[in-house]
Amino acid sequence: MFEFKLPSLGADMDEGKLLEWHVKPGDKVKKGQVVAVVDTSKAAVDVEIWQDGTVFELLVEPGTRLPVGSVMATLLEDGESAPARKPVTLQGARKGEARRKAPPPEVAAEAVGVRQAAELAPPGRPRVSPAARKRADELGRDIARIAGSGPGGVVTLADVERAVVVPTAAAAAATPAAAAARQAEMRRTIAAAMSRSKREIPHYYLFETIPLARASEWLAGVNADRPITERILMAALLLKAVAITLKGFPALNGFYRNERFEPADAVNAGVAISLRGGGLVAPALHDVDSKTLPVLMRELSDLVRRTRAGSLRSSEMSDPTITVTNLGEQGVEAVMGVIYPPQVALVGFGRIAPRPVVDEADGDLRVLPAVTASLAADHRVSDGHRGALFLGALRELLQHPEDL
Amino acid sequence: MKVSYREALREALREALAQDPRVFLMGEDVGRYGGTYAVSKGLLDEFGPDRIRDTPLSELGFVGAGVGAALGGMRPIVEVMTINFSLLALDQIVNSAALLRHMSGGQCAVSLVIRMATGAGRQLAAQHSHSLENWYAHIPGIRVLAPATVADARGMLAPALADPDPVILFEHAQLYNLEDALPVERVWHACDISRAAVRRTGTQASLITYGGCLPKAMQAADELAATGIDVEVIDLRVLRPLDLDTIAASVRRTHRVVVVDEGWKTGSLAGEIVARIAEDCLYDLDAPPRRVCSAEVPIPYARHMEAAALPQVAQIVAAVKEMLNV
């Protein structure tokens, strides 16, 4: 028997609200499977489990708010048989963590729908009525995230309409009051994380103007043969360049916890994504250094879409080892970033624009596209010297885009 | 004042006979006996034996005579006692009446009205209880009507006679005693034989039906309303050509459909309607369409078994509730 606990989905999270279960007692689960949806106040996040097993008991009802680390479910390990006592489903949270308030009716209704769907629907394609599917498309709603209340758990038109009031990031704007409450909550969350950052992390900042003439030309060549929908944006190229460069600078990639630095093996770049209603999330793109550009581009688009639709996975929320922010799109020249704790660095890019650049080969002054890259890093872990070398290496790498 | 469905049919016949000398009624027992369902009672005395004609028991013969009379410029109304016996006249109806305009290159018109009783529910056993309206609704060249209200019983005959092509009027045997107040004269005088009618508006499901099942659908709608479920009832009225616009508009409002049809499900009119909805309105459907039809057995004689074989209010209510998952 092992316990499934509410994981921390980011350093700024100390509690979460269970929105729905994706499993029921008796279900076999695999490592990496999404078992629940939890609202972190920033987003509705699909929470994965990290051990194979069979669900024994669900201990928390949807709608319950609970601290990080609370036991949400118990599971049997493979080969383990169930204890004699009968599993009890969906009690209030254990250890006195009773529900602080009743779940909103729409959430409760959803949960009922989920259970029915799980019991009655055949595996495979989700059962969605044609009218519901069409309406979900019109509303831009992810049908997979809507629980069905129809016969056999079919998602009906009414379910789609009702889903408008479910508190996901995407649905935040459903009612002005809900949107405002959500905004306030997100603001508080960001305030807590950023205050902690500025209180605890001694930042140092470095800037470097990186010529992008070669990278732009190379990318144009690559994109010439690709359909518009599959074109690779400079943002993906910059991400990959940062990730590859980081491999040589482990002191910039990892976490500072308990007074010591823990370097990370993988480069999981947290991509700062602004939400339409305001606020910000920086979910991870995993193993950026080892992915090809087309794959990275596809994953980046997918991540942006899912972030704005409010369907992120827990590993994406908790895994970033460094944050990359690209504020150039908003037209600013450079960024002095605030590190997202417990990370130890943030790389920022400003606007890519024609700048006077001295060509290092012949000393001539030319007008070429360039970008100002910045590094905000934690002085407890690294020094300016290392940081400067990092930005220099990044600049060099971007002069050889074919290596990316 | 309330009028019965039977009286409304009779008034319509009387009016047609009085207004147009080309109109005459013929069929088995329509004269001296006054019609098996007493629709033509009294008309023999009023209009005489030339215009109210009893025929031998030979459907093929007298329906054929009706086709000939129509070709000769008359406006015959032929009563076939029940739809079961009309099978004997299928050749005249399908091969002659429906096709002569086409076969003659438009030179001949068969302006014939055929009335017949249809349906079960009166313990008349399997050979007198068919609902084969869909057989006729299958045939291009004829218009098929199913008056299900007193007003339609009163109003449909005149436009049927005015139609230059054959028209079949199906009178469900269980409707003859139905009583209702007739609307004002100008309403049934303007009777439209091309459109279905919304008999009750609703938002959560559309009950689509015709003929003898309309009262059942209306009752089901009442019972559902008592439990807070708001359904729409569509009376097809015209079984050929189907008024698909009215059907589609209703489905687009309610997103759920139950077709109630006394015919057997296999190869039924209900099947045709569901197919049209699937073709035209799939993306408006919030649930698979359902059909409440007769059990696939010969209609039994015993009362309880007959009732069990036919569509009933409880089944309609259950179908809607199942669809709504309540």
Question: What does the model show?
Answer:
The complex is a heterodimer of chains A (404) and B (326). By secondary structure, chain A is α+β, with helices and mostly antiparallel strands. Chain A folds into two domains: 1-104, RNA polymerase II/Efflux pump adaptor protein, barrel-sandwich hybrid domain (OB fold (Dihydrolipoamide Acetyltransferase, E2P), Beta Barrel), CATH 2.40.50.100; 203-403, Chloramphenicol Acetyltransferase (2-Layer Sandwich), CATH 3.30.559. Chain A has helices at residues 105-120, 130-139, 157-163, 176-200, 213-224, 234-246, 293-309, 314-318, 384-398, and strands spanning 2-5, 15-21, 28-29, 34-39, 44-48, 53-58, 65-67, 71-76, 203-211, 254-257, 260-263, 269-271, 273-274, 280-281, 284-285, 312-313, 322-326, 345-349, 353-358, 365-378. In chain A, the strands form five sheets. In chain A, strands 9, 12, 15, 17, 18, 19 and 20 form a seven-stranded mixed sheet that branches. A five-stranded mixed sheet of chain A has the order 7-2-4-5-16. Chain A starts with a strand and ends in a 6-residue tail after the last helix. Chain B is α/β, with parallel strands linked by helices and 326 residues long. In chain B, helix 3 runs parallel beside helix 5, helix 11 (214-226) packs across helix 15 (313-324) and helix 12 crosses helix 13. Helix content of chain B is 39%, strand content 21%. Chain B folds into two domains: 2-189, Thiamin diphosphate (ThDP)-binding fold, Pyr/PP domains (Rossmann fold, 3-Layer(aba) Sandwich), CATH 3.40.50.970; 197-324, Rossmann fold. Chain B is globular. Chain A binds chain B through residues 129-134, 149-151, 154, 156-158, and chain B through 255, 282-287, 322-323, 325.
